[in-house]
Amino acid sequence: MPGKRRGRHFWIRLLLAIGFLLITGAEAQVHVAISDFTNRSNLPLLDAWEKNAPELLSTELSQYPDVVVLERRRLQDILQEQQLALGGFLQDSALVKQIGHLMGAEVILSGAIHKFGHRYRIDLKIVRVRTGEVWTEKAVSPDSRHLNRMIEMLAANVHYRLTGQGKYVSRIKIGRYHTGYWLMAAGALFAGAIYTDDVYKTNRRLYQNNTDLTKFQTYYDRANGAYKATVLLGTLTASAVVGALVAWVKNRTAGEIKAGSGNNPTTGASVQLYNKGVSLGVQVRW
Q1: Three-state DSSP state, 180
Q2: Cα–Cα distances in Å, from 210 out to 11, 198, 203, 223?
Q3: Per-residue pLDDT tens for 9-48?
Q4: Where would you find the membrane-spanning parts of this chain (predicted)?
Q5: What confidence tens digit (pLDDT) does each residue in 210-250 have?
Q6: Domain residues for 69?
Q7: Same domain for 157 and 61?
Q8: Do residues 30 and 112 both lie within one domain?
Q9: CA-to-CA separations, 233 to 106, 197, 228, 236, in angstroms, rounded
Q10: How far apart, in whole angstroms, are the C-alpha atoms of residue 150 and residue 145?
Q11: Mean pLDDT score of the chain, rounded to an integer?
Q12: Are residues 70 and 195 both part of a single domain?
């Protein structure tokens, strides 16, 4: 009996320990600081990216409850106190640890913006403060219209790397054209053309068979108006069909924003330790 009681107590303690880990893991948060982005191209257009990208990334990452984005102003103040350039300190692992500890940051992010041919690329450097380990994430766009989508992809992939939650986004389709809208418009216009054609034929028949001169002009005007409406609606229907075909072809050849990584992920059961909690479960380890 005493042996059975001890065994029962062991399992109770084990379940309580697992429950504690799960509860504290749910509250675990990663503290992230975002440094500057640098325009490495010769395009003045990308100076706006250099300015806006850190704020956009901060906004995207802040949407995740298990990520705490620290104020960039705090990072700037610390660097001014240390007489360091924003972004330059990331080359020195000792300084990274020092600045990270002063901020309470576990991870520091910085970025570089490039243009190669017709493609635009953002390289995001991810530095873990405790170890000085550096990872990279990339987003490549076929043109300059998709900064927000590129940052959205980078934020999702950084979140996945840091927490193992969500999923890794390898590509985002862009330039999607709504073929269905064109087809619905074509259907509605075609239905209208059928109706006006029926009105035209009815009034044309009445006009041809009319023996009452007082109604002759009325039937003629109705038939003439319905004929013009039928021609117009038929032309618009054909245009909508062409629009649907063009949209379908463009969707078949639509561009993509693609992700790239400097490290290959491996998965396995792990326990992630953070400043304010423990996360138990299947995590991605880099």
Answers
A1: helix
A2: 99, 18, 10, 13
A3: 666 666 665 654 454 444 578 999 998 899 999 899 899 9
A4: 179-196, 229-249
A5: 777 677 788 888 888 989 999 999 999 999 999 888 888 77
A6: 8-174+256-285
A7: yes
A8: yes
A9: 64, 10, 9, 5
A10: 10
A11: 79
A12: no
Check: pTM over 0.85? Answer yes or no.
no
| Residue-wise DSSP of 77-142 | HHHHHHT--TTGGGG-HHHHHHHHHHHT-SEEEEEEEEEETTEEEEEEEEEETTT--EEEEEEEES
- The residue among 188, 198, 161, 196 whose CA lies nearest residue 244 is 188
54-106: pLDDT as tens digits: 999 999 999 999 999 988 888 777 777 766 655 555 666 677 777 788 888 89
CA distances (Å), 261 to each of 37, 151, 257, in order?
18, 15, 14
Give the number of domains in the chain: 2
**Contacts with 119 (C-beta within 8 Å, 6 or more apart), sequence order:** 140, 141, 142
